[in-house]
Amino acid sequence: MLERQSNLKAWFYLAPAMALLSVFTFYPLFNAFFLAFLEDFEFLLGTASGFTILGNFQKVITSPNFAIAMKNTSVITFISVPISVVVALLISVALNSIKKFQSIFQTVFFLPYVTNAIAIGMAFAFIFHTDFGLLNTALGWIGINPVNWIGLGASWNTAMFALLVYTIWGGLAFKIMVFLSGLQSIDKQYYDAARVDAAPRRRVFTKITVPLLSPMIAYITITSFIGAFKAYRTIIGMFGTSLRPPGTLSKDSLITIVGLVYDALYHADATGKISEAAAASIILFSITLTFTLIQMQINKRRVHF
Amino acid sequence: MNKKINSGRVKVQQIVVGILVYSFLVLFGIFVLIPFYWMILTSIKDINQIRTEIPPSLIISFKQIKFWENYSAAWVAAPYWKYMLNTVTVAAISTIGTVVTTIFASFAFARLNFKGRDILFLALISTMMIPGEMFVITNYITVANLGWYNDSQTYVQALLALTMPFMTSVFYIFFLRQTFKQIPDELYLAAKVDGTSDWKYLWRIMVPMASPTIITITILNAMGTWSAYIWPKLVTTKDEYRLVTNGLREAYSELAGQVMYNQQMAAALIVTTPLLITFLFLRKYIMRGVSRSGIKG
Amino acid sequence: MKKVLSLFLMGTFALALTGCVEIDDTPYEVDCTEFPSHVDCLEDIDPDDPDGPGLINVLDALPTEEINITFWHVYGAGKNELLNELIDEFEVLYPNINVSDVSQGNYTDIRSNTISAITAGTTPTLVVGYPDHVAGYLKGNAVIPLDDFVKHETFGVDLDDFFESFVAENSQYPGGYMYSFPYSKSTEMMVYNKDIFAANGITVPTDGSITWAMLDTWADTLVDPNWDPESPTANKCEYLINFDSAGNYFINNVRMWQGGYTNAAGDILVNNANTKAMLEYVQDRFEDHTFSIPLAWGDSYGSANFIAQDVCMSVGSTAGINYNIPSDGAFEVGVVPVPQYDMDHKSAVQQGPNIAIMSDSTDAERLAAWLLIKFLTNTENTAAWSMDTGYLPVRQSGYDSQDFQDFLAISDNTNYLYYYSLAIQAAYMQNSYFDYDPAFAGAYTSSDARDQAGIAIEALFGGNSVQDIIDDMLVQLGAS
Q1: How far apart are CA B161 and CA B83, in angstroms?
Q2: How far does Cα B81 stand from its chain's mean position?
Q3: Which of A35, A64, C428, C459 could form a disulfide with C464 if both were Cys (CB 3.0 to 4.6 A apart)?
Q4: Which domain holds residue C305?
Q5: Do B183 and A172 touch (CB under 8 A)?
Q6: CA torsion angle for A171, A176, A181, A182 (degrees, to 10)?
Q7: Which of B113, B127, B130, B145 to mutate to test the interface with A (most CBs of A within 10 A)?
Q8: Which residue of B has its CA nearest to C308?
């Protein structure tokens, strides 16, 4: 280790953050956990009839949309995260390597951040429109017939595809900003040395950039997975509160676990609903935590700290 | 002779790679830009054009532009000056708070060795795995119990309620910790040998080296305040304490009939401008690479 | 560290246990001294007492000291000018009452903010909301019944002056008491393209006697089965009639067909022959383009397509009438009551938010709040609110007032109030058969049922089978 243990000093540095987190993060979190084990909790009155260990979890798992929500959450997470991380990494490295127009490109890739959510929704509706959408127009050039992506009665498959494109788009700006700032912290000496050795670009990328950027890659991957497990707003943005392509039944719904949480929270005035929201959150938490621990285990071997 | 041919080939190769890199960036740049372009386009179209045009046109002729009409109507739809002033105040307080607490905590996690560090860090990360909405009601009750929310709420109380829960962030602590971890250990050991204190080392070496990340955190955090909506509405008792996104949403929450998309986009662009200016101003600091030779001594 | 952490955890648990939640395994019993207005405490109450049932204490006179009340509503900046004016007038009338009014965004926002406020003990004095919101607040004993105010000899109002359906809607809570008061009410009306009908020699009855059978005959003439959006056929339409709100459409159709929807207990009654027959009938009309919903054009309202003359008639909210008027005067618009399946079971949707008074308030605040409600809904102000917003006056005297009659008599179609006036006349013709959804709160609320009803109509339009739709609705509303 770097130094002998310095507990007191460490807590001095941690104190401001920990004090705030205790009040506004840990306390509400424990509160939420606690609610999941109350039976027939009346949120508006603050009364419950007793404790239950599994009752609220059982309610969540047997609720009609649980299986669909699990499926959607997994698909969104395991497809969108790897693609968006790789694409963002490539864009950042490309952006970092150019000299001309660098500032313009950097601004362009930042703009999604300041784009109004309604405009984003409208633009994607246009991209995926069956009759005159950009995507179907482009497909037409290569002789593919128009696809009903998100229109009336669209299938789960095409709607999910559109949602994934939207999700990946939505995550790019943040990831690029993080990678760019991470790339700045890499010592230029490494690249100078590589240039002297006339190392090919791909080698520079895999042997210098990726390893030295690995803390940022680890950060982005872990937080992106956590974020994707919590996907919900993107679905509202694309499909509205019905969470599905118009004119379809709930088997084609794109609801996620957080969708279930929202749904239960919305009914917080009903008996026990807030406990169901808490239980659904704990289920999500357990899945995410397990997955994150596995990732950290893998990272421990790969990440060049 | 041989060397000349070689350098010629390298040059050709460089040009080809250059073309590929730029094409790649342009392609994704367009993909990323479409919605923003859409926003600008909608903000200068006539509402009837937006409603009846099928398909919507991607170009607008100079004659059709309704810039002045839309932007002036949007500007008077809500007291944006007041809202923006509030937002800047809240963003400044919470960003300064976040940056300071984040720097301290990240330093502890990245550089100091203390008992339970890894468990505590994992505990912090795991708080991100709970949907944020689960925190809202408890925090609201906390804020009310602290006396910051009441019928005769003052501006200071409103500011406390708006900023205190956002004076630190696990998300950014994790981010900055990773940046600090990128800084080679030898620097720290060398500083130790020189007898530099942790405090000095943090401010003289780590913070300057991590400045691109700190600037990024500043921008991201300010943007968070800009788009905050649910919390500001919940913890303020008067319209005049609210933030820009509240103003935006409320000016355009149509109860019956259609939304004036053009004015709404115009309003969105108006309130976004300060953010864009901030970004353009800080942008160069993100891209200013720090070379180690520069901070020696 | 693990030990420390688990200790911390247990400590917090214990804290949460003692701090927030009361655990009581005996069946829940209301503390009637604390919540005298709770349903379970109403035994000693005389609901028929002409002076009011005695549920709450009404002060004999408004105290003279300063009274501060807060009013949460949904009328954001730019839309609340008239409301602010009315509040200013009210404050002049009662100089010791200060009203601070705050917009909470949309109906979803105001509901969730109020629920949060109830749990934190920070509720406003007055809140605007739908009946199912109020039914939810009532579970936390957070709203008070207004009957004692209504019947009070000094501060009361004459309920007979209020439209019957509005009073009934606001009395549908446990015990039949009024836990909310009618405020911004609207209904649906139908616009039609006069030019197209005239060109085809069809006369549209304006007295509310249009039936679905007539729509079928008109569709034979007016709907072009080979409609080409690129070159629309003159004096024909792609669809005959559009219905803006799929939820209203389902609910209103069920009533006209004597089918089942929901009841006040929250039972879901859609799985019955009449409801299914109605859905089958509607699906046939979707297929032959007699009926349509905005989804046909990927939209949420049909007004753009009505203006573009893709559809000959369109049913929508009275408050949205002006969106259906072509700004270039391309054709003339008529406004009539909503078509009925048959004349024996007429029904028109009555909707829009009401006002409630929260129970976490003093007697003085409650009285001040009631005086504000009374002021906002008095003859003059309900008429003014109606003319400004397209909502309906909530009382007959408002409708009969001179100002309002002048407004209804506007005949100049360049006056922007002209179409509002037509819409309200059409609405008024329907007032004898206004109907409202029974409000219920619980694991599923009446607004969930309404959402599912809308989804059902859209799924019907999307070609799903009636049985699949009904089954899905039952599953989603926890009724299977």
Answers
A1: 16
A2: 21
A3: C459
A4: 187-350+429-476
A5: no
A6: 90
A7: B130
A8: B52
3-state secondary structure of C188: strand
**Are C127 and C144 within one domain?**
yes
pLDDT digits (tens, 9 = 90+) for B71-94: 988 888 778 888 999 999 999 999
A175 touches chain C (CB under 8 A): no
Same domain, C222 and C112: no
Among C371, C390, C409, give the residue marking a domain's end. C390
Size of interface B-C (CB pairs under 8 A): 92
Instruction: Give the DSSP letter string of B129-198.
Output: GS-THHHHHHHHHHHHHTT-SSTT--HHHHHHHHHGGGS--HHHHHHHHHHHHHS-HHHHHHHHHTT--H
pTM listed for this prediction: 0.89
Minimum CA–CA partner of A228 in chain B: B129
Residues of chain B with pLDDT under 70: 1-6, 51-52, 54, 253-259, 288-297
Residue A187 and residue A184: Cα distance in Å, rounded? 8
Q: Which of C2, C77, C120 sits opposite B79 (nearest CB)?
A: C77
3-state secondary structure of C7: helix
Q: What angle do CA A107, A108, A109 make, to 5 degrees?
A: 90
Alpha-carbon separation of residue B165 from A17, A58, B123, B157 (angstroms): 11, 33, 18, 13
The DSSP output letter for C96 is: T
Nearest-by-Cβ selection for A29 from B18, B130, B292: B130
Do C214 and C74 fall within a single domain?
no
Per-residue pLDDT of C297-315, as tens digits, reads: 888 888 888 998 999 999 9
Classified as helix, coil or strand, C421 is: helix
Encode pLDDT of C321-368 as tens digits. 888 998 888 899 999 999 999 999 999 999 889 999 999 999 999 999
Relative orientation angle of helices C446-461 and C131-139, to the nearest 10 degrees = 140
Looking at residue C270, the DSSP 8-state letter turns out to be -
Does residue C300 sit within a domain? Answer: yes
Tokens standing for residue C20 = 């927030």
CB contact under 8 A, A267 and C445: yes
CA dist B213 and A180 (Å) reads: 9
Q: What is the pLDDT of residue A115?
A: 83
User: Are A181 and B216 inside 8 Å of each other by CB?
Assistant: yes
Do the Cβ atoms of C303 and C193 come closer than 8 Å? Answer: no
Instruction: Please write the tens of the pLDDT for every residue from C420-433.
Output: 999 999 999 998 89
Q: Do B291 and A189 touch (CB under 8 A)?
A: yes
What distance in Å separates residue B48's CA from the closest CA in chain C? 9
Enumerate neighbours of B (3 or more CB pairs within 8 A): A, C
Kindly provide the ipTM of the predicted complex, given to two decimals.
Answer: 0.89
Beta bridge partners of B251: none
Rg (CA), chain B: 25
Q: Which residues contact B156 (CB under 8 A, 6 or more apart)?
A: none
Which residue ranges form the domains of chain A, and what is each CATH number?
A: 66-254 (1.10.3720.10)
- Beta-carbon separation of B233 and C113 below 8 A: yes
Q: Using the structure block, give the residue that is written with the tokens 């997955």.
A: A291
User: C223 - beta bridge partners?
Assistant: C237
Q: What is the pLDDT of residue B275?
A: 86
Q: For residue range A108-122, what is the model confidence (pLDDT) as tens digits? A: 998 888 887 778 888
- A236 at the C interface (CB within 8 A)? no
Tell me the mean pLDDT in the region A242-263.
Answer: 94
Cα end-to-end distance, chain A, whole Å:
13
Q: At what angle do helices C363-376 and C379-389 cross, to 10 degrees?
A: 60
Q: Chain B partners of C79 at a C-beta cutoff of 8 Å?
A: 255
What values do phi and psi take at B207, rounded to 5?
Answer: -60, -50
Residue of B115, B122, B129 to mutate when probing chain A, most A C-beta within 10 A: B129
Q: Which DSSP letter does residue C342 get?
A: -
